[in-house]
Amino acid sequence: MTSGSGPAAEKVPAASYRRAGANVTGRTPILDLDGSYGEGGGQILRTALSLSTLTRRPFHLTNIRAGRPNPGLLPQHLAALRAAATISGAEVSGDHLGSTELSFQPTHLPKFGSYTFDVAETAERGSAGSVSLVLQTILVPLALANGASTVVLRGGTHVEWSPSFDDLVNAYFPALRRMGLRIDAELKRWGWYPVGSGEIVCEIGDRSTAKLNPIQIVDRGYLQQVAGSAVAANLPAHIPQRMANRARASLEDLGLRANIVPQRVTAACPGAGIFLVARYENLAASFSAYGRLGKPSEAVADEAVAAFREHHASGAAVELHLADQLLAPLSFAGASSSFTTPRPTGHLNTNAWTIGQFAAADILIEEGTPCRVSIRPHLLR
Questions:
Q1: Contact 183/176 with Cβ under 8 angstroms?
Q2: Most buried of 63, 240, 355, 378, CB within 10 angstroms?
C-alpha cells in the first residue's frame, strides 16, 4: 500500500492484542465476530471494516475466510484492511497475508483526502486481487466524510468472483448516487487475472445530503435497453467479435436490438470478458462473464446472457449480486428502504448478519419470487 498526499501519509500503528469485551475507549467494547459464519468468505471482513470506520466500533475477527479452500487474508483482503486503517487511523493486529485472526480499532472517523492503494504492493508480488472489493470497503466511509476524496487503486479491475469495473459503473455507482452520494470513476488501465496491473481513479465528492437517501425499488419498470461491450486484451479481434455476435443473437427474442460493442485493449496479460447492462425504467442491472484458456468465446457470452435472463425472469428490481452490496450504505439512510431481488444469496444473508452484529440496522429478508429486502436503520430509533 502506498500513500498520496494528506491523510494517506499517516502511518498505521500496530496494536497490541485485546480480547473481545475489553474496554478500548473507556466506552466502547470490542465486538467479537466469527468469520466462519454464513458463506465464510471475505464479505464479513469488508463489511465489518466499513461499519467500524463509520461507527468507530472496534472489532476482533477470527476464522477469517474459514469457508474457503485457502483461508485467511489474501492480497485484496489485506489491502482492504490497510486501506480502512489508513482512512480511520486504526490500530491493527493480524495484518499479514494468510492471517486468520485480526483486531481493528479506529481512532477517528474517516478522513477525506487523496489516497493510493496497490494490491500488488500489499502482496509484495504481482497480484490480480480485486480493486473493486478494496474500493467498496472504503467508498461509503469516505463519501460520508466532510470533504472530497480521490482514490487511486491498482490491481485487478476485471477478475472473477468480484464486481468488475463495469459492474461498479453500470449498477453500483448509480444506486449510490440515488442515495445522494457523488461518485465518479475512470478506468486508466485494464487489469486481468493473473497479473493484474490495472488502475482505476475514483472521485468522491462532498455528499449532497446530511443523511443518505433511502430507496424504494420493488418495481424495476420496463426493459429499455440491453447494451455492453465484449472485450479482449492482447488477443485476436475475432474473440470479442464472436462474444458480441453470440450475445446479440441470443437476445433477439426480447424485441430489443442489443447494442454490444466488440473491443480490443492492451493490458499486462491476456484476458477476455463480456459486460452487459440491462437498463430498466427504474434501475440498471449489470452482468459479467470471463474467458479462460479452453473456454469458447460463445460460452462466455452464454454465461452473461444466462445471468441476465435469470434476473429478467424473476421480475426483481435489484440484481442478485448488487443486493448484498446495498445493505451497508442503506443502513445509514435517513429512513427505511426496501427492494426486491431474485432470491436470497449466501452473501446477502451473511452481510445482513454482520450489519446486525454492529447494531446498525434491522434487515428483514422475505423469501419469495422475487425476494423482498427491507432495511430499517437504527439511527431512526
A1: yes
A2: 240
Q: Judge if 65 and 130 occupy the same domain.
A: yes
Per residue in 118-131, pLDDT tens? 999 988 777 889 99
- The C-alpha atoms of residue 311 and residue 249 are separated, in whole angstroms, by 19
- What would the pLDDT profile of 143-189 be if each residue is shown by its tens digit? 999 899 999 999 999 999 999 999 999 999 999 999 999 999 999 99
Supply φ then ψ for residue 329, to 5 degrees.
Answer: -60, -35
CB 339 within 8 A of CB 216: yes
> Which residue, chain included where needed, has cell 440498471?
284
Q: Is 96 a catalytic residue?
A: no
- The answer to whether residues 131 and 191 touch, using CB atoms and an 8 Å cutoff, is yes
Which one of the listed residues 60, 238, 347, 378 is annotated catalytic? 347
Query: Residue 280 maps to which CATH number?
Result: 3.30.360.20
Structural domains in the chain (count): 3
The residue type of 162 is S
Classify the phi-psi angles of 214: left when phi > 0, otherwise alpha if psi is within -120 to 50, otherwise beta: beta
